[in-house]
Amino acid sequence: MSVLGLLFQVLFIGHSLVGPNLPDLVEAALDQLSGPTVVEAQVINGASLAYNWDHAQGAEGVDSRARLARGGVDVLVLTEAQPVAVQTGSAEQVERFATLAQQSNPDVRVFLYETWPSLASGPGMVIPGDPGAATPWATRVADELPLWEAIAAKASAKGVSVTLIPAGQAMLALSQAMAAGKVPGLTNLRQVFTDDTHPDGKGLYFLAMVQAAAISGKSPEGLPARLTRNWLSRDAVITDAQARAFQAVAWEAVSSYQPKVTTAAAPPAKLTGITNPNLALGLAGVNDWTVQQPFLDIMKTARPWVGHLPGQWGGWSHDDLAAKGYLDANGWPKALPSEVTGITTLILTDLPDTAGGVAGRYVLTWQGDGTLKVDGRARIASATPGRILFDYSPGEGAVLLTITATEPANPIRNIRVVREDREGLLAAGQIFNPDWLARIRGAKMVRFMDWGLTNDSVVTTPATRAHVGDYTWARVGVPPEIMVALANEIGADAWFNIPHMADDALVSEWANIAQKGLKPGLRAWVEYSNEVWNWQFAQAKWAEEQGKARWGQDQAWVQFYVLRAGQVADIWAGVFKADPARLVRVVSVQTGWLGLEDQILNAPLVIAEGGKPPASHFDAYAVTGYFSAMLGADGKVATVRDWLAQSRAADPAHPYAMANTLAAQELRDGSVTGDPTDTLQTLLHETLPYHAGVAKKAGLRLVMYEGGTHVVGFGGQVDDAELTAFFTQLNYSPEMAILYGDLLSGWAKLTDAPFNAFVDVLKADKWGSWGALRHLTDDNPRWQAIAGGCGKC
């Protein structure tokens, strides 16, 4: 038997915060705590775990992959490169090494060694490649812990338990102990470091105490000051009193550490996911009251700044602040006007108490000097400079963030708000809320009309569009780069809506972002604006003005629409000319106005100028797939009230049962009242077949830009609480699910294009029940019908 078989064997894999001297000290400590031990190491200075895997053969020390393959390793200690926030795939690399170790020793224990950022970190500091350099060191150590925990948790979820060695937290505790006079002869952490990153001999002794305590589960207290035969270096010499202090701090840090767990309400064990292979989703708009909660950083959904004059709410808007030079390019305040008492933004506003996935503890962080107050539904758990923890539960009201003072030389900026258990994901560079991704993953396409604030858009140029660095994406829309990132994340085609006043430079920039950013295999769909025929929106009025200026005629708005839409389509086609199959150019029509499409597809005023037939600029002809039977209109409201009265009388315990049956019959074909207007039957057998014929004649593919139930009160009926309650429950009822099944089946008989449900996640109210899901943990019959599809249809 090899002598190694009788020894406790430890393997470190990492960089200069492992080698060359730490393994010897850990070995000596474990010899006394756990018995004869051999500690080996693979060291590549500055290397990430990925680089360590790829270059194991040329590393200092052992070849870790060969060593693990031979077997016999009892403990594997891994660490990631710094800055840890910029590393990618760390959990996967931990899993990779751990799996290799487990193949030869199923009982191997795997540890992740948390390190620390540069001691030089602090306000105003710039360190190339280190985005967190301007944050104070102690704050960074605390803030980055969730990132390390997330790596360990994600790797553990794959089946190999990974335990964190909280060495970064131990260094922070040592710094605090020194400042408090608890380490004899040492008052500052720099006294045990050789530079901004690396401990000297004394610091390595302390670090060995942390490692040995974590690996053995035993206190290192009582170990000698000199662990090895000789001191490793002159700066390694410590007194017995210093050794005792190091050991006490190390053991306290290790023994008291508990991994953070989420305080948020857990979602139901199983929620219906998307299995429908031909489903598209319109995405609900981004704002401070969204139940969609698409982003990890809640600040990205914040309401634009409101400045307050003395004694009142408001008085200054974001635009006022920007116009007078008080905001920087990203919208963070450089200073406050003397006239205001503060500026406020709102988040997590009026979320229903049934909303899942939002309750819990949140972390608010910022950079800069000044005063930032948190009010409203937030309950403060702790507050330190630049960091506040607060608890939140959904309900009426909002969380208010108010800046009452800011230092012009170092103003408050880069505010971020994230659920505490998601802090590591955000620090790792992830963008999207995993709860939301889980609900929409599987969609074939997503339409970004509301994300882009397309209706009534004020965006005109590249400078005025949304940018990734904007303090909120609820002011002029979500940046196209983020749209592309989402499409790539869920593997869906991306349908972009170009603002109606966008100049050619913006159109081209947007196209290039899509062309360069979308993963191979994903297509970009481009549509000029949204419903330019709809006089409810500013784009219709603007198009009418442009048409009259160009041709001197009234009622030319849809012809100007198709003129500009064709120009936009041509710009995109130029950008995608090397791979035209990745682009779908969309022209849309008013589905219910049969005949209006002729002015769009043939546009005599455009043709008279010598332009090409408008249809030649496009690939797809887009319609809606809505039905309502006009239940919320004045002509049928009395009938609906009668249904409700009859239903309550027939079955008081189920007051909507009969009314739902009658409403569903009316929605299907209008046979209850004899009026088939806007019913499912009319849509599937008259309206959509008509448009399918028009599209075929024009050589275009019939597609849907929005569709589903349109059951809502019209006009004054929106304020009728009884009708709203009935319509809301009807829209999510089993009866509605059956109608959706027929709608999906009927659509599939007309075209192979996806059914495009409007929208993904949105709270139902008097304005409509547009959300297929009402919140992130909703699971209703209508959603189940949409998500499941129509089988072999």
Structural description of this entry:
Among the domains are: 181 residues, 3-Layer(aba) Sandwich (Rossmann fold), CATH 3.40.50.1110; 126 residues, no CATH class. Helix 4 crosses helix 5 and helix 6 packs across helix 8. The protein is of the alpha/beta class and 793 residues long. The longest helix is centred in the N-terminal third of the chain and has 20 residues. The N terminus is likely disordered. A hairpin with a 6-residue loop joins strand 8 and strand 9. The strands form 4 sheets. It has an 8-stranded parallel beta sheet with strand order 22-21-20-19-18-17-7-23.
Summary?
By secondary structure, the chain is α/β, with parallel strands linked by helices.
The percent range for strand residues is 15-25%
From the coordinates shown, what is the CATH architecture of one domain? 3-Layer(aba) Sandwich
Termini gap: 68 Å
Mean pLDDT, rounded to whole units?
A: 94
Radius of gyration: 31 Å
What percent of residues adopt helix (DSSP H or I)?
25-40%
Number of strands: 23
Question: What order do the strands of the largest sheet run in, or round the barrel if closed?
Answer: 22-21-20-19-18-17-7-23
Count every helix, treating DSSP H or I runs of 4 or more residues as helices: 23
Secondary-structure class: alpha/beta
Report the biggest beta sheet as strand number plus sense, adding barrel if it closes: 8 strands, parallel
The CATH topology of one domain is given as: Rossmann fold
CATH secondary-structure class of one domain: Alpha Beta
Q: Which regions are unreliable across 5 or more consecutive residues at pLDDT < 50?
A: 1-5, 261-268
Supply the CATH superfamily name of one domain. SGNH hydrolase
What sort of overall outline do the alpha carbons produce when their principal axes are compared?
A: elongated
GO molecular function, one term: hydrolase activity, acting on ester bonds
InterPro entries: SGNH_hydro_sf
